[in-house]
């Protein structure tokens, strides 16, 4: 009888799986409720070191995986680089990895948009495309 699985074992496993999926759904819901401050502002053109750039629009490339131009509190346009440099994909669609990342980086309170953590949390939200 050691190798056989009983009906109650399967039921317990199913309940555990359903519980874990509900935990991930709760995380995704809290992520959707999190309002990123740049979304209210929209995307505008501005000037950075003499060239026209779009504000609040993450772009792939630069010294890190992504970069974005934002205005700081003083009204000056700055470049914020974020992401790893290894070239691996972020695997954001795996619920366990998303939960771990968002907990590790405290994405419920992402901080100011002039910091890399803000934009990393923005990229790791559920159900959205990674901006290129």
Give the CA-based shape: elongated
Supply the helix-strand structural class.
alpha+beta
Q: What is the percentage of strand-forming residues?
A: 15-25%
Number-wise, the strands total 5
What share of residues is helical? 25-40%
Total separate domains:
1
Radius of gyration: 20 Å
Whole-number average pLDDT? 74
Order of helices and strands: HHEEEEEHH
- Contiguous helical run count: 4
Reading side by side through the largest sheet, how are the strands ordered?
3-4-5
Terminal CA distance reads: 55 Å
Contiguous uncertain segments of 5+ residues: none
Oligomerization: single chain
Main sheet summary: 3 strands, antiparallel
List the helices and strands and how they pair.
Layout: H1 7-33, H2 37-41, E1 45-48, E2 51-54, E3 59-60, E4 66-71, E5 77-82, H3 95-104, H4 116-123
Antiparallel strand pairs: 1-2, 3-4, 4-5
Summary of the model, kept short:
This protein is α+β, with helices and mostly antiparallel strands. The chain is built from 4 helices and 5 strands; from the N terminus they run H-H-E-E-E-E-E-H-H. The mean pLDDT is 74.
Question: How would you describe this protein?
Answer:
The chain has 132 residues and is α+β, with helices and mostly antiparallel strands. The chain has one domain. The protein is built from four helices and five strands. Strands 3-4-5 form a three-stranded antiparallel sheet, covered by helices on one side. A two-stranded antiparallel ribbon has the order 1-2.
């Amino acid at each position: 009888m050691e190798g056989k699985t009983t009906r109650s074992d399967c039921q317990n496993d199913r309940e555990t799986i359903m519980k874990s999926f509900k935990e991930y759904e709760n995380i995704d819901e809290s992520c959707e409720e999190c309002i990123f401050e740049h979304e209210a502002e929209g995307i505008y053109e501005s000037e950075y070191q003499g060239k026209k750039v779009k504000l609040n629009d993450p772009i792939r490339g630069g010294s890190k995986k992504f970069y974005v131009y934002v205005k700081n509190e003083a009204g000056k346009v700055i470049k914020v680089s974020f992401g790893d440099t290894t070239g691996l994909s972020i695997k954001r669609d795996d619920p366990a990895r998303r939960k771990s990342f968002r907990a590790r980086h405290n994405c419920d309170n992402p901080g100011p948009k002039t910091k890399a953590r803000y934009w990393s949390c923005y990229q790791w939200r559920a159900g959205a495309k990674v901006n290129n």
